[in-house]
Amino acid sequence: MISRPMSDGNARPRLTSVLQTPFASFDRSRDHHIGVFVGEGIGEEVVPVAVRLLERLGEHFGRRLVLHEGGLIGLPAKIESGSSLSEAVKAQAREVFALGGALFCGPGGDRFVYEVRREFDLYCKFTPIEPFPELRGAGSVRDATVAKADMIAVRENMGGIYQGEWSDERGDDGRVAHHRFHYREADVCRILEVAARLASTRRGSLTIVLKPGGIPSITHLWRDCADPIARRFDVRLNELEIDNAVYQLIADPGQFDVLVSPNMFGDVLADCGALLLASRGLSFSGNFNDSGNGVYQTGHGAARAIAGMGVANPTGQILSLGMMLRESFDWPEADVLLRAAVRQTLADGIVTSDVAAPGQAPVGTAEFGAAVGDRLERLLDQHRP
Predict the structure, then answer these.
(1) Does pTM top 0.85 for this prediction?
(2) Which one of 110, 187, 257, 267 is the catalytic residue?
């Protein structure tokens, strides 16, 4: 058994069990194929930290890891090939998926995240918002408020404004920018079914985030689809407008269990929810389709202002690694161990600058990663696979 000094050390259920085609159990004797895309900005600093932890876990558990070094993504890829998701990277991703693997990504700018979702129909994004008790007082939101937060944001990736068509032309009064987008009933229903099924496994509350006055037709479609689905899964359905939802998320996060929304609203909510975590450096997510494919990433972006300074927080990248091992490789104990190692590091007062309390001396990316690695070693010493 694992020695679990932290209160939330139990394995989390697989979120992908609520997809229309749930992820199958993974045969641990098979090779674990992982496409590693370092990305840009601080990706070169935080991704290697997570990969070192991954390799140590593989060694301890005797799991055969096959790491596929990915090519350029994001802005560097666009500069080189003209696209933030190049044909070469698409081919690499297809190869990994064909082998039953997953993609582990650092930050990729420009259109990368939207294009990879569209290319592989990664319609569902899960963003857990679960603050660490060890970071009480580290963020800008009151501790008593943060303590109530325990939710998962479910975001639809394939429709809406981020996946529309656009143009820029010269009009009589200057330039005119056009953007056209839509939602199909089938796409709305499939994400609502995932969210409702997830809520039915948790506290039975589903909040749908819309904007009736701003996008009436899309709001009416989502609302009309949501009512019968919520009844079918026997979950309470609440509706909030996006502006009020953002306010309520910080004012009273305890009211939320599962939130579901169109892609732009989901983007806003996930970033706002990072305030409850104390830093965007702790945010992470996974994007999924119904074919067993997953792409895992952080929520903080390239953070170019601090790139190369060695001060970035690698926690979000480490937690996205745990999510990948739990969801795509049916390896919940690895996720438990990673989270416990991070929590022990934070409990020992070892923090990066983004979550350092006044008077607390922060450490850099590499030092924080090494500290997590040391605590992971201690946990592994207590664990017999």
Answers:
(1) yes
(2) 267
